[in-house]
Amino acid sequence: MKYGHFNDEDREYVIDTPATPLPWINYLGNEGFFSLISNTGGGYSFYRDAKLRRITRFRYNDVPGDTDGRHYYIQDGCLGRDEVWSPTFLPLKKPLDRWRCRHGMGYTVFEAEKKGLSSTLTCFVPLGENCEVNQLMLENKSAFPKKITVTSALEWCLWNAVDDSTNFQRNFSTGEVEVDGSVIYHKTEYRERRNHYAFYGVNEPLAGFDTSRDAFLGKFNGWDAPQAVFSGKSGNTETHGWSPIASHRVALDLKPGETKSLIFVLGYAELPKAEKWETAPVLMSEASPQGKAGVINKKPAKALLARFDTDEKVKAAFVNLKKYWDALLSRFTVRTGDAKLDRMVNIWNQYQCMVTFNMSRSASYFESGTGRGMGFRDSCQDLLGFVHLIPERARERILDIAAIQMEDGSTWHQYQPLTKCGNADIGGGFNDDPLWLVACTYAYIAETGDSGILNAPVVFNNVEGTEKPLFEHLRRSVNYTITHRGPHGLPLIGRADWNDCLNLNCFSEEPGESFQTTTNKETGVAESVFIAGMFVLYGNQYAELCERFGDKTEGSQIREEVATMKKAVLKDGWDGEWFVRAYDGYGKKVGGNECAEGKIYIEPQGMCVMAGIGTQSGEAKKALRSVKDKLTYKYGTSLLWPCYQNYHLELGEVSSYPPGFKENGGVFCHNNPWVSIAETVVRNADEAFAIYKRTCPAYLEDISDIHRTEPYVYSQMVAGQEAPPANQGEAKNSWLTGTAAWTFVNVSQYLLGVRATHEGLQIDPCLPESFTALSIKRLFRDTEYDITVTRTGAPGMTVDGKSITGTIVPLPAVGAKRVVVEITV
Ligand code: GLC
Ligand code: GLC
User: Fold this and answer.
1) pLDDT digits (tens, 9 = 90+) for 74-83
2) Which residue, among 304, 2, 326, 291, has the nearest Cα to 131 in the 3D structure?
3) Is residue 500 annotated as part of the catalytic site, yes or no?
4) What is the model's pLDDT at position 416?
5) Which atom of ligand 2 is the closest one to the Cα of 515?
6) Cis link prior to 64 (omega < 30° from 0)?
7) Fewer Cβ in 10 A, N or C end of the chain?
8) How far is CA 714 from its chain centroid?
9) DSSP-derived 3-state class of residue 743
10) What's the confidence (pLDDT) of residue 287?
11) Tens of pLDDT, residues 248-262
12) Would you say 794 and 824 are in contact if contact means Cβ atoms under 8 Å apart?
């Protein structure tokens, strides 16, 4: 069952009903100001950091769900007093004559109509601006004049989202606002250490306003029945403490056929300390017996509001946003004959990669924005998906990530985007982390040719004065693995490797204890075959960087280390039919046939084959066969089999989940593309593509009722083959997942086969026979590659008419704008 449809031409998903199985959301914003917006107008906004600069309040796991957001109440004077409706459906839940929600690239539009009054609410964050614009167009389609009242409402968050939802003894006393004309300013904590405020304005004179939530809602009411709306009167309240909100009331007359618009703008302003006040707070004195609150400097807010106070200005900003996405997404486009594949590659997968670039794992409808911030490994992997879109920002990101590395090569596991400092609550010790830095740097240089980044000075652990070239950071990453090996010569796992839940050095018996950060059992023995696979893959990439841009001798030393690791994997990391997952703290196999549960894990199969281990000697194909037989089902490839029915002290969080969920045998979508890529390595195009399709949202649109999350983006997890039948195929944790980057790597670089290399653009598709003709456009190092692939059975390649051997198009002459590549397969 579907709840909407794709509109590929406009790059939109059009949702026909508010009653989607879960809120289906979109993201607004590109740089500083961000908003989450659901198909019923829910969500919240923040500036840069969803934890430290939360602008509006949102209650996770609330009942009923998703009722915090931008609220608009439209009262049509021709109807009864209770006939008030919301253009976003929520919070009023009034049935509408017509309704739909269109999620597009960086914007969302709600179209509604009731009894001759139609509304179009367009929400977006203009490029380069710290605000969200909500333009509400109202049209009187009836034959009679209408008197309309529009009431807006949103709830301020007191900046730090954790504090806001915990520290009520303080918070109920700190709230402060100012009202000036049609603009409501939120200035809590501005008197003390904050030099920033938020504001919410509208480009019309007000018929009333409210800033006190209690006064606006009235006793016992929720957002679906505010007293101020249903009594027809705003309280004109200026709140002190409690819960500050912002609500405008605007009255409009609409003649038959007439259209009017209201432009609401939610903004954020930061001021230099010396300029923060228009009038600083006044001390108590004889002249002013009570002292006097300060008046904030509203100049930047007013200037911003003036940039969006007419429909023409809003339209121009909206067109700019569209142009931005046109340009971005034109860097890689395909026509394959399969509409679903095309829409994922050309639109939604790349769009999701940009969202993971901005959000990492911080803010979604499943990530509270207060938890994980930017993950080290997550951000490195995300980069693989967006490096071709925004190479300059990828460069900056690599340098930020490298700055949280320690001198010994280990890394903090996470950092907060605002401070860019490592998160001490989680610490480090995840032994796969350092190697991911090699992966993203290598990909960046292959994409851009900017090997100069290797010389960029970067601090360790954010400590000034410790700068060393990025190259040195990579060296320490690689050496960290070399110097941290266990009894089988395989890398020590530390707190966990990619699988956060395989905690072989934490034996936790206390409920609520952290599986990752409790160090109660430093065995010094537990090893990871997965990291070994990573070392072979990324160690080779590092060696190649040494050979091309550094010290050749070091390159060959690293190649030797890689060869040693490969041997260790084939000796003790091979179980006979598949790769072992790890050795636990007792030196026993994890993910071996001898195990009663968790006999086979997906991660080392994908990673080791991607690294080229066993491709000559046959292990690779065997391992993939085992994945197909044991882990693969209708809705994807499960993480492990058989699932753990019991909690295993020596394995940790993986066995804490019920069978079939999350890391305990769920389809953890992130690692499915590894197996698909691995299938292309052994040239098994049919299975590679089948794996791709099984988790690809566009192919699951028809089962949206089963899948439940948005059919335009990937989710982190789908309940696995051993989950209860009623849950099978059900997805969770949409949007913020490494799946976005890795599936894009898979589909673009391996299935379609278009891969950036140091020597040029490689084109080597691996698709089923049913694909007979492809056309691909790819911007690579400022040259547009116009590629056609035709299936003829006689492989060959011509570049600008000249035939070329191999699969790599050599770098064209400097300044070449366009290269035409014709390929036959
Ligand atoms: C989550 C984490 C990621 C981890 C994965 C597997 O997606 O963000 O870092 O690799 O889970 O546990
Ligand atoms: C990852 C895993 C999740 C685990 C968390 C702990 O997000 O997916 O299951 O609870 O890491 O850090």
Assistant:
1) 999 877 777 8
2) 304
3) yes
4) 84
5) 6
6) yes
7) N
8) 10
9) helix
10) 74
11) 999 999 999 999 999
12) yes
